[in-house]
Amino acid sequence: MIVVFGSVNADLVTRVAALPRPGETVAGPRYEIFGGGKGANQAYAAARAGAKVAFLGAVGHDAFADVALADLVAVGVDLSHVVRTASPTGAAFIGVDPAGENIIMVASGANADLGADALHALALSEHDILLLQGEIAADASLAAAARAKACGARVVVNAAPVQGFDTAALPTVDVLIVNEAEALAVAQRLHLSETDPENIARIIDARGTACVVTLGARGVVGWWSGVRRSVPAFRVDVVDTVGAGDAFCGAFAAALSRGYGFTGALARGAAAGALACTAAGARAGVPDVAAIENLASVFQA
């Protein structure tokens, strides 16, 4: 089973003729509400990719809570350990202009109330994977990783946003997933002079944590136990790249949980990330396991 411990939001999206400047008000004709949050997005992607998934997060007692969780219910994610708090459900306020540029403001809300004690009700074992991101309190993620490791579970961390990742967690992390910018930020925190993302991944792997770097149109590179693995980018018709990273992480973890090795998991993560780019929005293009396997079959590991 994959246990995702992370954020869940209601995303309020409006399309405007132009994004506002400081102090300016602009009007949009309507708005839409979607489920969001990196934790929930990755739980959704992992379930779509064929894994058994439990999501541990926090929502309020407001109407946004059901909206934020609806997609997870639809794909069979176990929500029995979601915490209800006195804080409002987390929300993101997103404006999008005709060119697809956006401005986003996120209110953490109930996500800030999430503590690692939520994991105590789960009997984690060596058969499980804990999947973490950087949108909840760093100390909660750190404690969750330590608990999972003590139970023998594998720990996969996506250091996004990187501000929420504490490098003190690395000794408890089996696989760290970063993009190029996140790799550089992690290197700075580790006081590394290296600026090449691939070499940063190699150094992190040499210190005991396998590291994956997603490189956009150049594919993905991973280092595991001193061995480099790479998967080229799959060719798709790109609509937008929103949610591609979350789709990668969810499908990568799902592949590991289904018994694939590191390279096979990289290929399935890359396939899911590519397919996620074929539709607008964070979840609309997230593929199911059949689509992932079909595209991943192009890559011969």
Summarize the structure.
By secondary structure, this protein is α/β, with parallel strands linked by helices.
Walk me through what this model shows.
- This protein has helices spanning about 40-50, 65-75, 140-150, 180-190, 195-205, 245-255, 260-275, 290-295, and strands at about 1-5, 10-15, 30-35, 55, 60, 85, 90-95, 100-105, 130, 155-160, 175-180, 210-215, 220-225, 225-230.
- The two termini are about 25 Å apart.
- The chain is built from 8 helices and 14 strands.
- With about 300 residues, it is of the alpha/beta class.
- Helix 6 (about 245-255) runs antiparallel to helix 7.
- It has an 8-stranded mixed beta sheet with strand order 4-1-9-10-11-12-13-14, sandwiched between helices. Strands 3-2-7-8 form a 4-stranded mixed beta sheet. Strands 5-6 form a two-stranded parallel ribbon.
- The longest helix has 15 residues, at about 260-275.
Shape: globular
Order of helices and strands: EEEHEEHEEEEHEEHHEEEHHH
Question: Helices and strands: which structural class?
Answer: alpha/beta
Overall pLDDT metric? 93
User: CA-to-CA gap between the ends?
Assistant: 25 Å
Continuous helix count:
8
Uncertain spans, ≥5 residues at pLDDT below 50?
A: none
The Rg value, from CA coordinates, equals 18 Å
State the helical fraction. 25-40%
Major β-sheet profile: 8 strands, mixed
